[in-house]
Amino acid sequence: MQPSGRHYVVVRPLFSEDSFAEQHERINRTRKTLRHHLKDYFTCDTNRAKNAARSLLPIIGWIKNYNIKEWLLGDIVSGISTGLVAVLQGLAFSLLASLPPGYGLYTAFFPAIIYFFLGTSRHLSVGAFPILSLMVGAVVTRLVPDGGPPANITGFEGLSMEQQRVLVASSVTFVMGAFQLIMGLLQVGFIVMYLSETLVSGFTTAAAVHILVSQLRFVLGLDFPGVNGPLAITLENVFSDITNTNVADLVTSIVIMALVLIVKEINDRFKSKLPVPIPIEVIVTVIACGVSYAFNFEKRFNVVVVGEMVDGYESPIAPNLEVIKESAVEAFPMAIVGFAVAFSVAKVYSVKHDYTIDGNQELLAFGVSNMFGASFRSFAASTALSRTAIQESTGGKTQIAGVLSAMMVLIVIVAVGFLLEPLPRSVLGALVIVNLKGMLMQFRELPFLWKNDRTDFVTWVVTFVASLFLGLDLGLAVGLGAELITIANIEDFRKCFGVTVLKTIIYEPEGVKIFKIPSPIFFANIDFFRDKLVQAVGFSPLKVLKKRNKALRKIRKMLRNGELEISDVRQPSTDTSEDNNSIEGLDQPIDFSGIPIQVNWNTELPANISVPPVNIHSLVLDFSAVSFLDISALKGLKATLKEFLRIEVDVYIVSCDVYIMEKLHQCSFFDDEIKTSIFYPTLHDAMLHILEKHPDHGELEKVFTVICKLSRL
């Protein structure tokens, strides 16, 4: 049978390693000694001092560039909207921590103020987080149980049960913050990369089930002691007391949950048409307060209400050393979970709005925030996805919105908190349950994982089951252990952790970048892979894409306003619905509609519009050593490839393993943008195709030699 298609013939000398070394000079990387590293670390000058100040106080970097005209109004609207939600979530999540509702307001205030100065995320809403609240509650009810004497701890003498619980919560929060601060000083922010999306999904789903069950006693109006620790998920107390259900609480909860779910669905479906999301939680809370007060729910229907609220601020307190000793083991996983969740959410919005966040600085920020807040009786703070989404979607640009949100909480604490005293606790329980929808819906991932990645499926199930029945702290440890075991079974595990992804090429035709990956790609190194790829090509494709889309918006606006005249062309679109300052859609494929000319990004653009240059037309990824690809890495790889393709950089993958190809097909990797035609059996095939497509950028007769240079992580 005669082969079809184009042919090529390779003619070169026969090389041994010795003969190759004789004809080609070896390139060695200059390595610094420990003395040089120490000298660089302790050397100080003016620039380094300034950089250190900006690093420790990120507010210095962005406050001087604050655009009052364009950003202030959005921050004000966002701060008010987020503040109202922060008040309600603070009250609700206090119940998870087994504390009086009012103390959740402290958590929504003090940590947010400190984060304003120390945090690197401009959109994170700092405050109570349901999973952390539940973990704090487990410690609180263990040391100060509902139905028994408290633990024998010095410092409890003369305190009421409420005061003892507040002391426990603040002490465990203080040590949690201390752990975060120490990890930040030790520069170990990278640890979050070892918590895969699969592990976090299984853990948070189990936590959501814990939270759901813990709120049933408020929703049903039952009176039994809270439980904690291993097997706390049992429904025994609920079923044994279910005949005492308070019908008023149950009906109120059902109505609240139905209304909130319906309106949230409306917000999601019509978010592009709504100026701001409908604040349904605030609306139903106000209505519930009014109805409860008017009809005296507390006495007529025996409904448990929020009751006396905190009035102003109390004097600072010191953490109890005995409580710290008793809770240190539980505080460490709380520190990890709080940071991991906050960093993951912050990373999403930093990518969307094109700025960088620093994991080590985030650890410092949350460490100091929690330690400072604990001194004023707040409990563990992180972020909540729903609250952060509100802060960003309502126009928040910076942490000015976060400070204004804290000011809203301050007003409630010192002035109008008494208005919330008639609020039934069942309403707070219902709001907590409704906000669990996103976490509970993660069960839908299981069929996909079972079909496409059994390893991730096992990690998810093990983490979920362990967290469900052993408690959240032990469950996280078991899940992490299971994940490390699965990684240990990946071929070339040692290479994954010991060798960088980047390779250096001796010869590359003009406009071509060849990038070789010598190890499996998985959740722990996918971000490292993407960072090194950006370093290799010399630009961030996502930033370039956003800059180009912004430039097109500006050109369209100039054409509409007559500021840019082009003769003998069709008139531009008169659609003025596009917001030139909006970041929505900037990461989507470039749309030239309404532009009557062909834009050449490598030439000078009108009106001093600046777009980062792209000096390559082709990117070749050598997958010859990639023997494994998990779901997290697959998602990251797909997003990266699309970013390059959308800025007109052709991507080719060569020497891909058959197993990897099968997995890509199974996981719906290919679509209208990423096609199977980008895969080539060898690097030489891909290079010949590139040089044929771009004949002006190289010669077919060139010999392409690749020499790998290893560098450490």
Tags for this model:
mainly alpha, globular, four-stranded parallel beta sheet, about 725 residues
What can you see in these coordinates?
There is one protein chain. The radius of gyration is 29 Å and the shape is globular. With 713 residues, it is mostly helical. It contains 28 helices and six strands. It has helices spanning 17-23, 34-42, 46-56, 59-63, 68-96, 103-118, 130-143, 161-185, 197-219, 236-240, 247-269, 280-294, 297-300, 321-352, 359-375, 385-393, 400-416, 425-434, 437-440, 445-452, 454-470, 472-488, 493-498, 526-537, 541-560, 631-645, 658-666, 683-693; strands spanning 126-128, 381-383, 512-516, 618-622, 650-654, 679-680. It comes from Cyprinus carpio. GO terms for molecular function: secondary active sulfate transmembrane transporter activity. InterPro entries: S04_transporter_CS, SLC26A/SulP_dom, SLC26A/SulP_fam, STAS_dom, STAS_dom_sf. It is a multi-pass membrane protein.
Task: Provide a quick synopsis of the model.
The chain has helices spanning 17-23, 34-42, 46-56, 59-63, 68-96, 103-118, 130-143, 161-185, 197-219, 236-240, 247-269, 280-294, 297-300, 321-352, 359-375, 385-393, 400-416, 425-434, 437-440, 445-452, 454-470, 472-488, 493-498, 526-537, 541-560, 631-645, 658-666, 683-693; strands at 126-128, 381-383, 512-516, 618-622, 650-654, 679-680.
Low-confidence stretches: 491-505, 568-574, 698-713
Biggest sheet architecture: 4 strands, parallel
What gyration radius follows from the Cα positions, in whole Å?
Answer: 29 Å
Strand order within the widest sheet? 3-4-5-6
For the secondary structure, the number of strands is: 6
What is the molecular shape? globular
